[in-house]
Structures are given as C-alpha cells and as structure tokens.
Amino acid sequence: MTAHAGALEGVRVIDFCWVGAGSFATKILADHGADVVKIESSAKVDGLRLSPPFAGRLPGVNRSGYFADRNSSKRSMALNLKSEDGRRLALELIRDADVVANNFTPGVMERFGLGPEVALGINPRIVYLSMSMQGSGGPHRHHIGYGSTMAAIAGLHDLTGESSRDPIGTGTNYPDHIPNPTHAAIAVLAAVRHSRRSGHGQAIDIAQVEPMVSALGAAILQSSLSGRPQHRRGNHHPTAAPHNVYRCAGEDRWIAIATMTDDHWSHLVVELGLRPPVAWASATERKAAEAELDGLVADAVARRDAVQLARALNARGVPAGVVSTAADLVDDPQLIAREHWQHLEHPEMGRTTYASPPFQLSATPGRLSRPAPLLGEHTIEAAEQFLGIGSDEAAELVRCGVLR
C-alpha cells in the first residue's frame, strides 16, 4: 500500500472511550490519520484488555486480540482522573484538541469536571462526542448496557432467529461493530468540518440504541403502515424461495442460496439436477411450498462441496455464498487481493493480523500506522508533546500516581 498522508492528518482526538463501540469509532479516525490519544488507567483497565482471545492463549492486559483490533493506530496515555492533577492535565489535553470522545453513562465525565460545557468553555472549537446507551436525556438516560442489551431494546433480537424458536440475537454485539461506531464517526466528521469552517465546536449526543433503531427501518415501516409487526423468520425472505442456508458435505459446512427471480430458480434447478413440480415455476407457488422446496434443495446440496457449489452457482448467475468461518476469511483470496489484512509487529503479541479500514480512498487511503498500544505506552511521550512536561516533572507525576 502506497504511503500517503491520511485524510484526517492534523486532527487530534482525546479518547476517553473504552470497550467496543466508542473505541471502534475512534479507531476509524485513527486509521485515517487522526492522532488519537487513548486515555487509560492501570487502576481501572479497559474491559477489552481483559477480553479473549489472547495471543498464545496467555492472558494479559497487552495481549487481547479484541482490544488490539479496536485500538490500532492509537497512542495510550495512563492518567489518573481521580486525582486533581490528573483532571487538570486532562483539561490541558482538551484545550488544544479537535475532538474529545467518551462512551460513559451520562454524568460520569461531568463528575470528573470534563463535561461538554467545560470542554467547550476552554476550547470553543472542540467537537465533544458522547455516546451512552440511551443518550443524555429521557427517563432511561442512566440505564447501562452493552451491545446485546442495545440490540434487544432496539428490536433486533425480535427479528433474529427462527419463527418457532426463542430470540437468539446475532451471536455478536452487532451494535458495537456496525451502526454505533460508524454513526459516531460520521457525526464527528461532520462536526469537525463545521468547526474548521466556522470556528465553532459543538457537543454530539448519541444514544446508542437509536442507530440500532434506524437500522430496522423496513420492519418499523411495515408495522407503522400495516399495523402488522414483522417477526423473526430465520433465513427466509418475505416473497422469495428458496432463500435459506443449507448444509453441504464436510463438517459444519453450509451454503446460502437466494433465488430472487425466476431466472435464478431455473438455473438452480439445472445446477442441482432438481425435478420440481411444474407449478413451482411461479414465485408465489414456490413460496407457498417453501418447506417442501427447502427439503428438496437440502437433499440436493448435502453431498456437494460448499466452495465448489457456490462457484458453480455464481457462474450461472445464482446468488450464493459459502457460510465462512473466521479461518476462511483470513485465507480468502478476495480479501487478500484487496490487501484487507495487514500484519503488524506488536511488542508482546508479536506479528499480529489486523483488518484494514473497510473502505478504500484513492488519494488518502486509510492505513494502520501502528499496532494497538501497550497500557500507558505513550504516557511520557504525550505528556512531553502536548503538556510541555519535562522528564523530571513526569517522573514525579508517575511517583505521585497522577500518570499511571
């Protein structure tokens, strides 16, 4: 990948976020050139640092692959916000920054004396991002939760799973990985642009439940227009069939097939050698006979290799894809061809695989400038660069527990 200045070079972010969504939002900024300084504490470690998987299966605050993935290209500064001097130094960091970000429950930053009114008072051009679960207002503003909680509250769980079984969610904290960090990053970019043009900063209040609600637009529209709520239907489609995931040959190997048109269906029939009733040429009839149809397709693919079958169906223009495992993705030739995977040397974890930014800019492509930081790795460096603190003063602040 050719070296270019990142699109956000010159933007400084003071990052108080931890765990998933907030850290991913600031990672997006960091991977595109922003100087993101992650404020941490050895007294209360970011929960992701304690989350598996760990490199070499050896737990440690600097060995979490989950943390590494969410914090590439950042620096880590250990600062004790429970001390008066620590809070004073945090304010000095904010004074000259472009963005400050947090994903705490409302009131936490205010109790530290670092709320948006204080920040904007000392730095009128600052963009102040807050992304709590329910936002800063409303009767539920003090509720706490994680991705699975938000997905349930926002209605996602009711839409995922088989109709005859209990809600199962998505198997991962979907709100933390897609809607919340990306909405937050977009909001920050818009506010930074406004600040650069006008000189006026602003506070951004994201209730993380709300981006999830916006992701369910079609289901909400159906309910509001027809009065009939949409419920979970597994892998089935409202009108198309067959539209499901089917087991192939081998251990736990599956293929997803989506026949959205009559042409898709006719090509699927030829490839699988099916002998369906003539009436199934109609999409309406196929949908009406979906259970029988699924059984027919399942029998036909059970002895086929998933990769080869997907390739054959794609060649015929039938939408199909292998249900990939994480191991499949690391070796995926398409992702490799697009240089999606990057390998960085981490001080404790060694050579580590990282995902590149999920979009490519031709003139200012994002790139991972450094592996995830060790806890407090850049404390002294940041104190000297941003606060003008000399080595002797820094050593004294470390001794007093202000920098830790």
TrEMBL record:
EC code: 2.8.3.15
Stored Gene3D superfamilies: Crotonobetainyl-coa:carnitine coa-transferase, domain 1, formyl-coa transferase, domain 3
Keyword Transferase attributed: yes
Record key words, sorted: Transferase
Record-level Gene Ontology MF annotations: succinyl-CoA:(R)-benzylsuccinate CoA-transferase activity
Superkingdom of origin: Bacteria
SUPFAM superfamilies, per database record: CoA-transferase family III (CaiB/BaiF)
Transferase is among the record's keywords: yes
Family the entry assigns: Belongs to the CoA-transferase III family.
Identification of the protein by name: Benzylsuccinate CoA-transferase BbsF subunit
Species the sequence originates in: Arthrobacter ginsengisoli
UniProt lineage: Bacteria, Bacillati, Actinomycetota, Actinomycetes, Micrococcales
